[in-house]
Design brief:
Layout: H1 2-18, H2 26-37, E1 46-50, H3 55-69, E2 78-85, H4 91-107, E3 111-115, H5 118-125, H6 129-148, E4 152-154, H7 159-172, H8 176-179, E5 185-188, E6 191-194, H9 202-211, H10 228-244, H11 248-277, E7 278-281, E8 284-288, H12 296-311, H13 319-328, E9 336-339, E10 343-348, E11 351-356, H14 363-376, E12 381-382, E13 387-391, E14 394-401, H15 406-424, E15 443-449, E16 458-460, E17 467-470, E18 475-478, H16 479-485, H17 490-493, E19 498-501, E20 504-508, E21 526-533
Parallel strand pairs: 1-2, 1-4, 2-3, 4-6
Antiparallel strand pairs: 5-6, 7-8, 8-11, 9-10, 10-11, 12-16, 13-14, 14-21, 15-21, 16-19, 17-18, 19-20
Helix pairs in contact: 1-4, 3-9, 5-6, 7-10, 7-11, 11-12, 12-13
Length: 536
């Protein structure tokens, strides 16, 4: 009872002293203004403060209670606290729990207690104790929202924490987002997470509590340098304050706030620009080449968002991967880059395509190669004429026409040629339809001079040695060179369906027919072949 009586007396004296006259407590007024600036607390909010028992959290709870009791918070605001016992320091941890229970009892503030064997949980999860403790605290906060109706979780981070975080992230390697540090307010588990003490330093917090004789607990592990942040606090920041600038903490906290503003602005610009340059189609993402017209900082941010969004994680994605992607945009078409999560980036003529499961040894890639190898040992699938065949997502239908049908077919081809001229503004020869660059259709119909086809027709994918006839002089051209010259993306080339006899390609479905099989006035038999996307 002695502890409780002492606490009650100190709290009553602290509140009384702080409340004498307007503007008597500049510390509490700064906290109030900070809460108001960022609209941290609204009318009717249920605010649950994280309470470890240390100076920071005790200051947070008592300052919020003082502002509430003086009517300095919005109306109908309720206050509670949550304590998480990590069970890492034996009797000291139990002492912290007893302290916060007594403190909340004297202040008549509801307290929610959680206890986790952090060391055992960390070992089971294969994680560090510090990271495990942070995750478990967040689980406790989420339960306070879901089970106890809290609409706001208040945490006691202050300006020193901002400075430490900035240095920690800078040393480890960080993006602008990481350097922006700790935010005043953010969404959390359907509620808000706020940090009302980010406007004050640690020494101001302890001075405010000491002046009002409000007790707090000291965690001895915070005095040791076993954790990186403790070393930054005790060695780096203390050195900067003593030998560089006494206001180092404030300056670094202000810098973090400036970086947060810059990050928010760039995030908005990135989101707008991303819609112009990034598109997703099925299990692929395409990043348009015109992205290079943007400032380089936006280019890298868009590449980062596109890649992380595609693979569903930001872990293991850093500056190196994004710079490699950016350099790929300056390389020739066909170049490739293996990235984390089994993603492959392929440079195409008009941009970069991201593909899943493209790394060597991945089952999807091995299966595709296996199918291609099996087919390469055959002449493809024979196409009967007349006849119907389904292959590669297309349904082919073949029929033969005699010489009496040639005038009608020539008339149809001339109409198509005239329509093409109107669309492109350019001339095109009737019997050399060029479809490269046009929007892909779901159905095509072509007419070929059947007597010029020497061997049996087959439908297949491309093979070494394939060629077709192009140009006015009916010259042969290797299929590979034609596809490269036509700027057909490398990944699309592997999926092209061909109508061929032997190594001679008569039709690249979706693109063009061979110049040597075009229908003329001298044609005697016409092969009419239609290709329509399969329904299933």
């Amino acid at each position: 009872m002695a502890l409780c009586d002492a606490m009650r007396e100190r709290m009553e004296r602290a509140v009384g002293e702080a409340g004498r006259g307007a503007g008597v407590d500049p510390f509490a007024e700064r906290v109030r203004q900070y809460i108001e600036t960022y609209q941290m607390i609204q009318t009717g909010d249920s605010v649950c403060a994280g309470l470890s028992g240390g100076a920071d959290s005790v200051c947070l709870l008592t300052a919020l209670a003082f502002l509430r009791d003086k009517g300095e918070l919005p109306p109908a605001v309720s206050l509670s606290a949550v304590h998480v016992n990590h069970c890492l320091r034996g009797a000291e941890s139990d002492g912290d729990m007893a302290f916060v229970r007594a403190l909340c009892g004297e202040m008549e503030i509801p307290l929610y207690l959680y206890s986790y064997p952090v060391r055992e949980i960390a070992a089971a999860r294969g994680m560090g104790e510090e990271e495990t403790g942070r995750l478990l605290r967040r689980e406790a906060y989420a339960e306070c929202i879901q089970k106890h109706g809290a609409s706001v979780i208040a945490l006691a981070h202050h300006r020193n924490d901002c400075a430490e975080t900035l240095l920690f992230h800078a040393a480890r390697g960080s993006s602008l987002k990481g350097m922006a540090g700790i935010r005043p307010a953010a969404e959390f588990s359907g509620a808000r997470m706020i940090r009302p003490l980010l406007c004050v330093r640690r020494d101001e917090i302890e001075a405010w509590l000491s002046a009002r004789k409000i007790p707090w607990r000291t965690d001895r592990t915070n005095l040791e340098d076993d954790f990186a942040r403790n070393g930054i606090r005790h060695r780096v920041i203390s050195y900067l304050e003593e030998h560089v600038n006494a206001g180092a903490v404030d300056h670094m906290a202000d810098l973090a706030a400036d970086l947060a503003e810059a990050e928010d602005y760039l995030a908005g610009e990135t989101q707008k620009a991303e819609k112009k340059y990034v598109s997703q189609c099925g299990d692929m993402v395409f990043i348009c080449d015109t992205l290079r017209q943007e400032p380089e900082i936006l280019q890298k941010r868009i590449l980062y968002r596109a890649f992380c969004g595609f693979c569903g994680s930001e872990k293991d994605v850093g500056r190196t991967q994004i710079l490699d992607l950016r350099r790929l945009m300056d390389r020739p078409a066909g170049k490739q880059l293996d990235l984390p999560y089994g993603v492959q980036a392929v440079r195409e003529y008009t941009g970069i395509r991201l593909l899943r499961g493209a790394q060597k040894g991945h089952p999807a890639r091995e299966k595709a190669a296996s199918v291609k190898n099996r087919e390469a040992g055959t002449g493809g699938i024979p196409l009967a004429c007349p006849g119907v065949l389904e292959y590669g997502g297309w349904r082919f239908n073949c029929s033969l026409h005699g010489q009496d049908e040639v005038p009608r077919i020539l008339e149809q081809l001339n109409r198509e040629s005239d329509m093409a001229k109107k669309k492109t503004g350019e001339g095109s020869r009737t019997q050399e339809p060029e479809e490269t660059g046009r929007k892909k259709q779901k159905k095509y119909t072509k007419w070929l001079d059947y007597d010029r086809i020497k061997n049996d027709l087959s439908v297949r994918t491309r093979q070494p040695g394939d060629f077709l006839t192009v140009g006015k002089d009916a010259g042969r051209k290797k299929l590979k060179k034609y596809l490269i010259d036509s700027k057909i993306p490398r990944m699309d080339r592997e999926k092209l369906v061909l109508l061929a006899s032997g190594s001679e390609v008569w039709w690249i479905v979706g693109y063009r027919i061979s110049g040597s099989c075009r229908v003329t006035e001298n044609t005697r038999r016409v092969l009419e072949i239609s290709a329509e996307e399969s329904k299933g």
